[in-house]
Amino acid sequence: MNWHAWIPLFVVVSSLLPGLIIFGLPEERVGWRTLLNLTGAVIKLLLVSWMIWGVYQGDHFETRLALLPDLDLVLRAGPLSLFFVALSTILWLVTTVYAIGYLEGSPNRSRFFGFFSLCVTATVGVALAGNLITFLLFYELLTLATYPLIVHRGTDTARRAGQTYLRYTIFGGALILLGTVWLYQLTGTLEFTPRGFLSQIDPQHYPALKIIFALLIAGLGVKAALFPLHGWLPQAMVAPAPVSALLHAVAVVKAGAFGIVRVIYDVFGVEFSADLGVTTPLAWIAAFTIIYGSLRALFQDDLKRRLAFSTVSQVSYIALGVAIAGPIATIGGVVHLVHQGLMKITLFFCAGNLAETLGIHKVSEMNGVGRRMPWTMAAFTIGALGMIGAPPVAGFISKWYLGVGALEAGQDWVLLVLMGSSLLNCAYFLPILYSAWFKPTPKSWPEEHHFGRQETAWALLLPPLITALMALAAGLLTGLPFSPLEWAKIIAEREFYQP
Amino acid sequence: MIDFFSMLFLLAGALFFLAGTVGLLRFPDLYTRLHALTKADNVGLGLMITGLALQAESLSVAGKLVLIWGLVLLAGASVAYLIARGALLRGVLPWKR
Amino acid sequence: MSWIKGIIPMFMKVLVFALVWWVMTNGALQSWLIGGGAIVLATLAAKKPATHFTIRYFKLVMLIPFFLKQSILGGVDVARRALQPSMPIDPILVECPLRLPPGSPQVFMTNMVSLLPGTLSATLENNRLKMHVLDQQSSYMKDYLLLEEKVAELFSVPVQNTGAGELL
Amino acid sequence: MGDLLTDAHWGVLLILLPLFGGLCSFLWPSAVKFIGLATVSAVALSVVGLGDQLLATGVYHHAVGGWGAPLGIDLYADGLSLFMLMVTALVGLGVSIYALDYFDQDEARRFWPLWLLLLGGLNALFLSADIFNLYVTLEIVGLAGVGLASLSGGGAALDGAMRYLMATLLGSLCYLLGVALLYHSAGTVDIPLLAERLESTPPVWAALGLICAGLALKTALFPLHFWLPKAHASASAPVSALLSALVVKASFYIFLRLWLEIFSVRTEGVDDLLGALGMAAIIWGSLQALQQTRLKLMIAYSTVSQVGYLFLVFPLAAIGTFSAWSAVAYLVLSHALAKSAMFLVAGNLMHFGGHDRIADLDRAVQRLPITVGAFALAGVSIMGLPPSGGFIGKWLLLNEALNQGRWDLVFVMMIGGVLAAAYIFKVLGFAFTQAPVTHEPKGVPAVMEWSALLLAVAAIVVGFLASPLMLILGIGETVELMGAGQ
Amino acid sequence: MNSPMIYALLGITLFSVGLYGLIVREHLLRKILALNIMGSGIFLMLVALGKRSAGELPDPVPHAMVITGIVVAVSATALALTLMLKLVEASGSAVLHDAPKDRS
Amino acid sequence: MEALDFALGLFDILLVFLVLSLAWLVMSSEDLFRAIVLFVAFGLLMALVWVRLEAPDIALAEAAIGAGLTGALMMAALDRLSSVKPIQKVAASAQRKQLSLSSKVLPLIALVLIVLGLGYALLSLPEIADGLTPNVKENMAQSGVKNPVTAVLLNFRGYDTLLEMVVLLLALLSVWSLGGERKLSPRSTNPILGSLCRVLVPVLILVSCYLLWVGADAPGGAFQAGSVLGAAGVLLLLSGWHVEQKYLLWPLRFILILGSGVFIIMAAVLLLIQGGLLTYPVAQAGWMILLLESAATLSIGATLAALFLGGVPKSRVDQ
Amino acid sequence: MQMLYISLALFLLANLAVGMWRVLRGPGVADRMLAAQLFGTTAVAILLLLAEAAKSNALRDVALVFALLAAVTAVAFVKRAWSMPEARDID
């Protein structure tokens, strides 16, 4: 038996199966649930490591199942896939730990963790998808699995947020479906291929291809929160903090951004897209979204809302990076996939900790919180600095490569965008840091819980610390063989320099 | 000869049918119309059947014709009674000159 | 000897049904295979009336000419009235006592009355027969009484002389 | 043994078994459940047998009475027939299991004979190669449907059943008149012979119009759908499931069969009309579904819209490719599974809370996770989201529409999918609220919950079985006919 | 035009008259009557056209179809009538109302 | 000969005119009872039409059903309708006002168009067409009967008839599934009605058997026989017929399914022996068909009578 | 003779057509029913005439069935349909 043909499937199943079992578990079987969750996450991590090691050595991992007579369900582990899979797998483990701590004692946890696992399954599927239809399949599954998480609290705002989310994503899904079918119609294949599979196509189809591109990007842009399709994201922050972390860093937003990368690299091909003239508009939209998101973030008092708008802005770096269509900018965009994930998840964990421990939801309530919860705020600070792009945190690397890449591609205006955005980042993050660390502590917190001698529960404290450290490491240890930057370089090389 | 008689019977029968219909149309109330129906039509049918029976190819065919007539007669008389009774019970008053 | 009394009407029924069958099938021989069963079924279905009367079959045959004559007269009578432009009718509802016992004799009488010239039986209740008469000037009562006697003879029952005088 | 299995008359068994079962269950009311389940299982096994036989021998052909067409009636099974028989057996089995616990003894006595005879009628319908025989089977299906629809009693059910009766009788009559015209044009009622003999003459056109109108009425194609929502919504849950999943499809199958074999080459213009009506059905049905305040009415209107998808095939198939036909067959399958699951879910919710007002469903929805799971999975298929049977069908259809540049169809399909999502999530949203409204909960038997879930899961799973199912669909001559229009 | 054809034309006219009645008349009993008339029209057409054969006998196949058809029609009529009565008992009206009525 | 044809032609035209105007009057009558009586008359004339079309088999069926049973059914329905709602007329006239001009005129135009269209289609059919007559003739010798219609019904297209028996049963099952028991009406105290039934019922049974027998060679057969038997049942029900409850349970059900049951069993047996559904051995075809027809007659009669009753029958005398 | 049969049949049919006026006019339900009974008897006569013209035994059977079933309809009328007050349908 050829194991290599099944590993990608096992990776998907390793979270699907625990998820399905968890649905069936009674509410009070906490131990079993935790065990299943963690086992699944660990197994997935091991399998992914195996694949990373294998791919590094040139092995080929591909699961192929017949879906339609001429169309297969393909799960394939390429460098780009593994990049995203690794991110989700690691962050899933961390987030699971966090969620266990966060939701202790709250109702409907079986349902929550079930959908949580499904969500990760879908994300991993999106990452491993070897053709557009498989991608679409998991992309829609992701929509369905996330919805219950967003409305988990069941309040009216939650339901409204869920409905908004659905309205956006179902619509986006329809666009992708249309683009996919059309593309299939024109080419007869949907297989992801480095440098795209469209360059041989008859030029008479170019107008159609442009529309297809627009359809696909618009559909993906919904999840990637590209302006003007970002409206659902700020509303969705009503969800519990682990969900926000998942949405913003691991699953939904990332799936959208990842999809954009996929479409430009492996469907159209960067060069072909540039020839087609579709990348520049995308770059403009991405740039606008970056500025717009930052500006909106500036005026939010609600911490999670501010972070949400920050995501709108930050995720567009990825789109911008690939849209610039140069190798170095590509590295910057792709690597930001991981970097933004690490930083943003840290920030949301911290926000969650503040809310859980002290009942703080607003920026204006954060005076002196650094002294009450130093570890949390330390992690938050690392994340925030990374977002601003301050070295040595990971965000700096992304921005650096983006800037250099833009110059290399002759798109100097991007530098202006980067600078403007960084300034705005400073404007909405630095005041928080200032008041947290330097303003006096108020007499009482809105709703304080005590957790013995620690500032908060271990399960809540450890995850942000770990992710913050990882964000730091990703910025510092860029030269190591398996660092995000190295992988991003491999991906970019594959796209630009291989024959 | 037989043809002549049966023709006679048939024509007479038709005449009674006509009379029955005229009666049904002209008579002023339900009861008088019942008279027309039970008597004129039944006699008309009887005469016709006689005329046809004369032409019948076998005795059994004639017998079948008579059987039909008998049934129509019985049904006609019984139904006339039932309808008249029903009308009386429901208070339908007879027409008076 | 009473069982013979029960057998005879049954036998007559079978005979009548056999006749009907023969008439219908034009005497086809094979048809009797089913015909036998059919006659049995029909005989079973022909329920006995509540009170039994012995019918004099000879009288029944003798009744036919009378009946034919009367019904033709009745037909002629009504046809004449219907076709005449002046439409000479003068209807009335009369009620007569029936001097026959309840059951078949009364039923037979009632049905026959409807075929007599100018009369139509309308309600049979408590041994009284309500008739609708087309022309009160006609001699319907004579026919009625004659028929009554003939029916009584047919069923071999006496004409009970109860209040017959009140009409005449 | 192998010979015995492949030589057996599975097709005939498929007809006689349920009819006989129906009679037995009528005669022995105390054993209806046992007889019923045994019969339905035997039918399912026979379908497997027939499938095995067809895979080995191609088509099944049986001249009833040994006479053969044109004098006698022929039974005929190819891939399409087998496919429909399979759908029937699958849904039938699921609903039968559900019905075991749904009906009390008295209702069961009335339900099972009707259902088994309906099953026999459906099987006979899918196996017939004779348009007059099809008329008779349509009558069986129609009358059984009416009987079933009125089973639950009460004004609404009777009203629905009455509408259904009127519609189905009118549909049958139109169809019959068409059959009469065809018979007198070609001197036969055998489908293959008709296909040989018919020419494009006024009577044939009239027959086409009448048959299409009659069958469209029975299939509830917009704007002839007026009877469906009330009939399907007011029946008891298993009955609604059967009506929506199978009965509506039966007349559509005849439509498809006649179109493929008799009318395909003679129909410029009609196909576009059907397509336009299909599009209108999708939009209208979905919008109506969205506005309903009752769950069952919503599901029923959803059927109206889903039927619209089936009719999109006709303009596409004018050019005639296998994928258009297989798309519609796939849609039939997945809709049958998903819609039956949905109606069963509605039955569970009503059993639990005693009503089906969507606005007050929250508590029930939360207390019955398996049921709601079934609804969600069925919904995925109805919405046409991957991975599900509905998605595959929609994908194939979209593919074909784009292939022929039919942007109108593409557009409507997209809108339809989005609207479907809207009405399905209107219900699903309640799964996550903290309900202030309380119901008097009545426990829902596990059998009822799980059978609904199984059907819904099947609607998803068929999304992964496209290749084998296409193989089945491709058995026999229909394939050639499907591709022959090219 | 020969007499079978006249009857065939009568058949389709009956069908249409029935259809008209079915659509226009609201009382269910009349709708049921209309369906019966439509059926008769179809049967008539089916049989009348069967008389076009060159031989001395008319085509027996439509005859057989119509005989079963008549029996089925009467049974369907009986069902429709019973259903109508039940409906009238339940709703008090022998007319199908289209106005949305919330009967819970 | 010419004059004869002319007279027949006149007869046809008058008949067509009558049938058509009756149909129209049925549809346009405001009074329900009038519509029903007109419908009965319509059935009567239809029987004459069948005679004119040389279809005596159908004429028999129509005479029993169209002119007899359907009328009885409708009248019984009207009776129960008015017992539920005594003032039908008011409702009817109220609806009359709602009907706007367009809702009447448009269908009327549609009607004319349909007639014209279908008429054109009919007229463009070939003048002479044999249909299946030659095929039937050719195979009559193997059919086991001499009446071609019976041969088609029970042999050539016997499978259709099997299914039609199921349809009949289904109609009854559906009626019964509507719920509600119908008590048999009490014995009529009217002596005239009683004696009428005493005579008519046996005759109806005889006629039914006769039609069953004659169907093999001449017009007649199970459906006609069953209808006449059903009429006997209706008459018995009308005059009050005491049947003990125990007979109304499974003996009645047994008779009801007898027709379709024997058909199915016969089909299965023939499948096993002859290897075909309803493939009769030529020599045995005659009695097999007679057996099927006898069973069918009983079932049809019982079903029609039960349909007339309109509910699960229940004996009047209960414990 | 053929000619006579057919002409008489035609005459009876015309007769029947005239009788339809009573069905339409009423005024009572029973009056309409009476007319229907007349139709039945007339139809029996027409059938017998046609039967004789065609020497067809089958048509006599039809007439026989007619004669029987007309009675059944009438009984159904008396027992069932006639339960409403007579004044109900005066046009």
Automatic annotation (TrEMBL), chain A:
Q: Does the keyword NAD apply?
A: no
Q: Which GO cellular component term is one of those annotated?
A: plasma membrane
* Boundaries of every NADH:quinone oxidoreductase/Mrp antiporter transmembrane domain copy: 129-423
Topological category with respect to the lipid bilayer? Multi-pass membrane protein
Q: What is the superkingdom listed in this entry's lineage?
A: Bacteria
- Location in the cell: Cell membrane; Membrane
Pfam families reported for this sequence = Proton_antipo_M (PF00361)
Signal peptide stretch: none
Keyword Heme recorded? no
Q: Any stretches that span the bilayer, and where are they?
A: 6-23, 35-56, 76-100, 112-139, 165-187, 208-233, 245-264, 276-295, 315-338, 375-401, 413-437, 457-480
Principal cellular location given in the protein's record: membrane
Keyword annotations for this protein, in alphabetical order, are:
Cell membrane, Membrane, Transmembrane, Transmembrane helix
Family membership noted in the UniProt record: Belongs to the CPA3 antiporters (TC 2.A.63) subunit D family.
Q: Output this protein's name.
A: Monovalent cation/H+ antiporter subunit D family protein
What are the leading ranks of the lineage? Bacteria, Pseudomonadati, Pseudomonadota, Gammaproteobacteria, Chromatiales
UniProtKB/TrEMBL annotation, chain D:
InterPro entries noted in UniProt = CPA3_Na-H_Antiporter_D, NADH_UbQ_OxRdtase, ND/Mrp_TM, Proton_antipo_N
This protein's major location comes to membrane
Q: Which GO terms describe its cellular component?
A: plasma membrane
Give the UniProt subcellular location, in the record's own words. Answer: Cell membrane; Membrane
Membrane disposition: Multi-pass membrane protein
Q: Which UniProt keywords apply?
A: Cell membrane, Membrane, Transmembrane, Transmembrane helix
Q: What are the NADH:quinone oxidoreductase/Mrp antiporter transmembrane domain coordinates in residue numbering?
A: 128-419
List residues of the NADH-Ubiquinone oxidoreductase (complex I) chain 5 N-terminal domain.
72-111
The biological processes this protein is annotated with in GO are:
ATP synthesis coupled electron transport
Residue ranges annotated as transmembrane are 12-28, 35-60, 80-100, 112-129, 135-157, 164-184, 204-227, 239-260, 272-290, 297-318, 324-347, 368-389, 409-432, 453-476
GO terms of molecular function: NADH dehydrogenase (ubiquinone) activity
Highest taxon listed in the record's lineage: Bacteria
The family classification in the record reads: Belongs to the CPA3 antiporters (TC 2.A.63) subunit D family.
Cite the PANTHER family for this sequence.
NA(+)_H(+) ANTIPORTER SUBUNIT D1, NADH DEHYDROGENASE
Descriptive protein name: Oxidoreductase
Q: Which organism is it from?
A: Sedimenticola selenatireducens
Q: What is the lineage of its organism?
A: Bacteria, Pseudomonadati, Pseudomonadota, Gammaproteobacteria, Chromatiales
Automatic annotation (TrEMBL), chain G:
Checking InterPro entries in the record gives: MrpF/PhaF-like (IPR007208)
Its GO CC terms are: plasma membrane
Q: Tell me what topology the record assigns in the membrane.
A: Multi-pass membrane protein
Keywords of the record: Cell membrane, Membrane, Transmembrane, Transmembrane helix, Transport
Gene Ontology molecular functions: sodium:proton antiporter activity
Compartments, as annotated in UniProt: Cell membrane
Q: Where are the transmembrane segments?
A: 29-50, 62-82
Which family, according to UniProt? Belongs to the CPA3 antiporters (TC 2.A.63) subunit F family.
The name of this protein is: pH regulation protein F
